[in-house]
């Protein structure tokens, strides 16, 4: 029995030490460091479980803080999600905008833009998983559709110039920009779940379909089935 008592005493002391160590870690973090930690924790949980499947309790527990700390920094789960999504969209748009800004041929621009998206998916798998999930109710940003629209707006002026040079109607450029970006984004989502093909090969096939299709556009496309 004395041995059992000693063990219980040691377990109590170890538990107390663990609590003290955790408290010391919490005390050492600045407000900025704590905010960044919560963003990273939220990013992982949102990627694994989605917005609805993640709770404030789980975020706080994983970060080893109390629930009020999460509310203090972000006002709740919705605020943390919005910050995570905004950062991911900014990172993706920065890469694609850089690819589109360079002075180059239209085909090279298309290749660079496709690679920019695939680069982001490769380096930020969690971030892309968050972006392709449905955004929470009432959220104006973060949905896959809004992301496509943001990127497509960067592509419209390039396609408009290309249409003019081919004597096609530049007013249709916004529509084609949506279709083109949507095709690339959905292919990227497929590649994330089936990464057997090399990134360069995926980009090459994307460009093959998009460019050769663009190169042979009809001036006034119609449905050959005759359906209205």
From TrEMBL:
Q: Which residues bind DNA?
A: 55-74
Q: Does Transcription count among this protein's keywords?
A: yes
* Protein known as: Transcriptional regulator, TetR family
Name the domain of life. Answer: Bacteria
**Could you give a GO molecular-function term held by this entry?**
DNA-binding transcription factor activity
Q: Which GO terms describe its biological process?
A: negative regulation of DNA-templated transcription
UniProt entry tagged with the keyword Transmembrane helix: no
Which InterPro entries has this protein been placed in?
DesT_TetR_C, DNA-bd_HTH_TetR-type_CS, Homeodomain-like_sf, HTH-type_TetR-like_transc_reg, HTH_TetR, Tet_transcr_reg_TetR-rel_C_sf
**What are the residue boundaries of the HTH tetR-type domain, all occurrences included?**
32-92
The taxonomy runs: Bacteria, Bacillati, Actinomycetota, Actinomycetes, Micrococcales
The record's listing under Pfam families reads:
TetR_C_46, TetR_N
Q: Which UniProt keywords apply?
A: DNA-binding, Transcription, Transcription regulation
């Amino acid at each position: 029995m004395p041995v059992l008592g000693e063990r219980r005493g040691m377990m109590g002391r170890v538990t107390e030490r663990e609590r003290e160590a955790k408290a010391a870690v919490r005390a050492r973090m600045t407000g900025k460091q704590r905010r960044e930690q919560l963003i990273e924790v939220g990013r992982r949980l949102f990627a694994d479980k989605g917005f609805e499947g993640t709770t404030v309790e789980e975020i706080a527990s994983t970060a080893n803080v109390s629930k009020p700390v999460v509310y203090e920094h972000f006002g709740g789960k919705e605020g943390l999600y919005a910050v995570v999504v905004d950062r991911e969209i900014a990172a993706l748009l920065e890469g694609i905008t850089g690819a589109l800004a360079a002075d180059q041929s239209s085909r090279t621009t298309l290749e660079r833009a496709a690679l920019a998206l695939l680069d982001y998916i490769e380096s930020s798998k969690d971030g892309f998983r968050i972006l392709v999930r449905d955004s929470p109710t009432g959220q104006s940003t973060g949905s896959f559709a809004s992301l496509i629209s943001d990127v497509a707006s960067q592509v419209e002026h390039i396609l408009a110039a290309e249409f003019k040079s081919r004597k096609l109607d530049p007013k249709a450029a916004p529509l084609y920009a949506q279709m083109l970006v949507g095709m690339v984004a959905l292919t990227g989502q497929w590649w994330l779940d089936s990464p057997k093909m090399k990134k360069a090969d995926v980009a090459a096939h994307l460009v093959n379909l998009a460019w050769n299709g663009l190169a042979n556009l009809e001036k006034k496309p119609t449905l050959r089935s005759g359906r209205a």
